[in-house]
Amino acid sequence: MRRSYKFLLRPTPKQAQALTEMLADHCSLYNGALQERRDAYRHQSKTTVRYNEQSGQLKEIRAFDPDRQGRWSFSSQQATLRRLDRAMQGFFLRVQAGEAPGYPRFKGVGCFDTVEFPRDGDGCRWDSTPTEPVTRVRFQGVGHVRVHQHRPISGRVKTVSVKREGRRWFVIVSCDDVPVQPLQETGRSIGIDMGVVHFLTTSGGEHVANPRYLAQSENRLIGAQRELAKFPRRPRTKRSRRHRAAVAKVASVHRKIRRQRLDHAHKTALNLVRQYDVIAYERLNVAGMTRAPKPGLGNEGEFMQNGARVKAALNRSILDTGWRSFLTILVGKAESAGRRTVEVDARNTSRTCPACGYVSAHNRITQAEFICLRCGFTGHADRVAACNIAVRAGLALPAVD
Questions:
Q1: Domain-located, residue 377
Q2: pLDDT tens digits for 270-293?
Q3: How is 334-359 classified by DSSP, letter by letter?
Q4: What pTM does this model have?
Q5: Do residue 29 and residue 108 come from a single domain?
Q6: Number of domains making up the chain
Q7: Does 80 map to a domain?
Q8: One domain, residues 286 and 375
Q9: If you ran DSSP here, which 8-state letter would residue 151 be given?
């Protein structure tokens, strides 16, 4: 099994400056490679430049610019070119599928925040000073950086990445052959239904409250965005100190909300994994559920009401819950603990009667009330959906009241 560990870095001011320069130079390499691909396609009879061709030019680039490109790890620069190659492959796949293409864009220096080292020992070294009590990681061109390692790692170190989040630096260590640590079997199984009013509802009737972290920080975020809106849009080189501080404040609020969501997701997933051997959940198309409604047009071309304002509020609530992040965390924790997860189709789970199987949109009277029009079964709509999810996964259920 593969697992990643994220630790806080404590670089010195000189090391932090070197890390910033490393990100800037890798960003320049990424943008230069993207520009080469664009120019070749436009001006050379739609010629496609491949990763192998651009990787073969690295030696010349490093020799031409030894102060910027030549000082960093060769393998990390190859990883940056592979990152661009994956973005281009995704673009062509979307074109073939008839979806919105989304051509890869140039990265700003403030948006390029991660550099990957594909192999431990090649440009980087995890635990470079094993004899010292403090863990350090060594990066080529930066030196030995202190790591706040709050927990041990297991398995074989495969890749190492350095990431910037605001003014903080993190190292992400990805390990292979991580042993599974199975928990004691409980003999219990469950189905869960994700929601907005409740974060999730189990087939046993338990409700986990939705913390609504975005709504909690809404006033602070609005104030920060209003302060930022006072400044005109200018190039990064012409931004004032107050403008940069306003940008950093907005980003800081968003980072805090993200950390709160992840913390809640980790704790909720761990609680489920400890209690149940098998967990069934619904396959959710979050991108489709949060898609903006199409504009409504009347017979003479005038715009009609299409519920865009209400839909925007619902979309904001759905994205605030972080369903996809939670389910990804849940699957990872279940795999580490030797538990089993089952993904089922989500269609009509809240419209199907668990007693007689009758399916109708009118079975769900309100957001919470479910009354079967055929047999008269009543219950909480979210619990009914969780029970149907468990049934589709083939799990045994307690008696539904």
A1: yes
A2: 999 999 999 999 998 888 888 877
A3: HHHTT-EEEEEE-TTTTTB-TTT--B
A4: 0.87
A5: yes
A6: 2
A7: yes
A8: yes
A9: S
